Amino acid sequence: MPGSDAQVTLAAAPPVPPSAPPARAQRLNPTGRAILLTVPARDGAAYLGDVPLTIGPDDSLSFPADRILQLLADVLDPQVLDALRANLAGKTTIGPGDVVPAGIGIDYDPRTLELHFRIAVEMRASRRLSVSALDRSAIGTFAKPAGFSAYLNVRGSVDLVESGVDTGFNEPVFLLNGATRAGGVVAETDAIWSPGSYGPDFQRLGSRLVYDDMDDLVRFSAGDLQVQSRSFQTSPDIAGLSVYRSYSVLNPQMIIRPRGDRTFTLERPSTVEVLVNGSQVRRLQLAPGNYNLRDFPFAQGANDIRLNVLDDTGRTEVLRFNIFVDQTQLAKGLSEFGFYAGVKAPLGLKGPHYTDEWITSGFYRRGINENLTLGANFQADKDIQMGGLEAVVGSSIGTLGASAAFSHTRGMGEGFAVQATFQRLIQHNDGQADTFNLFAEHRSRRFAPVTFFLADNPYKYEVGGGYTHAFSSGFYAGVDARFSKGRGDNPDLHNYRLLAGWRLSPRANLTAEARFQEDSRGKEVSAFATLTIRLGQSSSVRTEYDSRDNRVRSSFQTIHGTGVGSYNVSADIERSDFGSDVSVNANYFSNRAELGVSHYGTFSRDFGTDLGQRTNFRIGTSIAVADGAVAIGRPIYDSFAIVEPHESLKNADVVVEPTPFGYAANSGELGAATMPSLSSYAERTIPVDVPEAPPGVDIGLGSFKVFPGYRSGYKLTVGSDYHYTAIGEMIDEDGQPVSLVAGKATEVAHPENPPVTMFTNRQGRFGATGLAPGQWRLEMLDEKKSTYLIDIPKDAEGAVQLGTIRPVGK
């Protein structure tokens, strides 16, 4: 994105006539012949691309016209660009003076070997900026995922009963889950293996094939479906086919709620801070131009959006606007849906039980405009059919949601249900906010979605709501209530609550509740209080009291480090009118596994008679494969990367994602590390380090950028064969040094790889870095187009001294 350090604008620097090169303290080209270079072109601090540049004997500059037009295509206003194309029609090579009539200046900086474009504000195109957490256009090149990858997680646990019934070790239980991805298709499954237990040893929980169409953002599944529901729908067990779209699943970086669009113009290079509800979400360095600012990361409720603009002269400007949105809304034109069809497949003792009873379910939602989202849904089997509608309306006073559904149950008749909700967030000038919500729901006696065993709803209607007010940054209070009107012999239910919270100090918080409840057991008034004290940044203690059964509970928890070597410990002690208990839980995260142990003990009265003591031991690990690489690591949650050292590192340890608080994994003695926590369709940069890398070995950029697909794997190699440097002297066919020219080195065995750019000095000396063992062709841009062949030995160490090299025959 354009930066803020552009030094000059067109208005401040009038164009230089092409016939009069500017005076310079030092000649650009004292050689007396043309010099060919490949140099970067910049618009301010923004890198536009490389340009072949010819510096003539008279210091004149020339470059290909097509390349200049290509670089300016995304910078200039379309009308300005069309006019420039017309002016340059028929010209293959141009100089800086040829673009002056279009309001463009081009300078060459001999110190940095760069071309700098100077473009007036009115000549620039409007640009779209995203204020989302990530701007994909700035991410760069992603590593390529493995063509074939797979993993298997194994989580095992075993109980040791010290006292109580059936003392000793119980049979172990293993939770197995894994996935295989090939050609974009994922096969995944989950199962439980409990050898020696009563009943079947193995129970498959579900298996399916999944394919994601990322062009249309649609997920196709076949097998044991994972049904998503809306409104009054249930989530039945279905084996069959499904098609599904959810932006939070398939495009989590996309903001799908209504977006605010604002246009502004910058006359000077500026810094723009974007604040949402007082929190800075992005800081942009922008060159002069016209901008459309989109995709604000709105919080739920009333939003205060502010842009603080500071230009390079010190001038400031503030732009502000407010808008109300709700997380369930969709922006105009966006749609989410899910359609599922197949047979009922309830989970049995050995796995899903596939019946011959058909069943289907589905929903569709669409953003009609910035304030209105509508949806419809249905479910049906041979016994029950249900259809419904829903709507979400956002306005300046709050968000109203409504849904209605109608059902038909064989042998029992029709039923219907309606529900309405209202949400409001009221912000104050001091930064505090109040929350207010209401809901009401009615279900007829015989209303039922699919899989209901008996359509007999016990309540005629339910209503409720709540309001919370922040009196200051250290104190808030509120009230909420819920009433359910019983149908027939079912009693009415009353639940009312007063609540408050105090920040007693930067480390201590107190919350309290007063509650009234009435149900079939009668009326009850109770109180609940919680005191939480932080002990440093990683530990805390918490004490609770509930008057309903005189329950007192004290807890301690601590968390240390991240990644390998991190651990957490928690302990609880509790007593009530019904007895007392104590529990301790600890987890440790190693490089290859997660380890855990917990103990739970129960006692009568106030820690009197021992009623039972049980200790649980846990371990979780994974084995992963990606394009032939194999690694053992901690359990994988979605996608993963296998990071392995290249042989040039000579078994040096590769550390993955090092931070001051720990690291995610390391290659170690097994030779490969597993990065287990990559999320689907979310950009991620994986930094790596090799603290004990051999001298002279290049480990690359030190990081990998990835964009994982669903259940995908990566094979990432740290280091490569391309770390050698060739040093020598070039002479042309006449025995003269090939001086002050650029060239490229191409690997003969792999001409498809990007070439290595190289330069010579006045004596013809050069250094080509980033070469691998094998033969390389060096092609120089001197007048004679000199070409050389060099060999890098396999047993070379670091720099390869070539001495004087001569061109090969054409």
Automatic annotation (TrEMBL):
Coiled coil: none annotated. SUPFAM superfamilies: Porins (SSF56935). PANTHER family: OUTER MEMBRANE USHER PROTEIN, SLR0019 PROTEIN. GO terms for biological process: pilus assembly. Residues 1-26 are annotated as: Disordered. Gene3D superfamilies: 2.60.40.3110, Outer membrane usher protein FimD, plug domain. GO terms for molecular function: fimbrial usher porin activity. One of its GO terms (cellular component) is membrane. This is Pilus assembly protein PapC.
